[in-house]
Known about the structure:
The chain is α+β, with helices and mostly antiparallel strands. The protein is built from ten helices and eleven strands.
Amino acid sequence: MSAAKQLQHAFETLSAPGDSREAWLERRRSGVGASEVAILMGASGWGSILGLYYSKLEESDPDDNDDPEEYLQWGNLLQDAILGELAKRAGVKIAAREPHLRSTEHTWMLATPDAITADGEPMECKNISYGYDQEDWDVGIPEKYFLQCQQQMAVTNAKRCLFGVLLWGSRMIWEWVPRDEATIAKIVKAGSAFWKRVLDREEPPADGHPEGRKILARLAIVESPLELFEPDVGDLLDEWQRFDTELANVRQKERQAKRCRDAAADQIAQAMGEHRQAYTATGWSMRWKTTNKAGHTVKPSIVNTLEIKAPK
């Protein structure tokens, strides 16, 4: 029996050939997808817990916008090529493309891996043109992608997930992401609690994400004032005041630190005098870096920035 057949008990397949967009949207509302789990875990910069909550209700999301961005369109067009090369480099065969899967154990848990290998292992690929930092990726793939892979493995009951990235359209990096039971347990706990809120129509507490704030503003349609009672919101008001004061102090310290740093840089420039570059015996280097700014909506200009590098 193949590994793919052995794993069939872990999930059910939801998609069918020729499914309409309406059917796809209905499936999306029926659970939490692997690409959405990072929102639940506070690891996504793109979405808020409130946005995710309203996207699961039968009524429309207050900020529902189905118009795809061009970069997403190109990502879809390049996906075939990326997946083909990823499979080639990893030495695997693709058995299925973009299956829509639901866990049979946790029915809210959905996954749509870009592909499934002949051994039943999920494949996930990305096309990235910005936001890549080699030092961060050397430690491990970003948490949002790690969580996505873990949910896909939780749904398929796989032991590893093949993850690949095409960088700037010219370089591929890839790795096998191993299953992490501790992370999957956290996903199950967070997802189960969230899905109970969806079923009970109980709005989750906002997480401070700007998207959530926009949704709350759109939901506020009554002009007459509402009295809020101190026993209900007193702790929140105290918390807001405490963090507002803390933020103001941080901003003041940041301004002071920036002023002192810039003053030190200017005095170093004074010591350099007419020279555009300088160095020290211990390895410090300083130079005037010239940047030409093209004139689009503003007048063209030349900006000189002093770069200072500490010894390695």
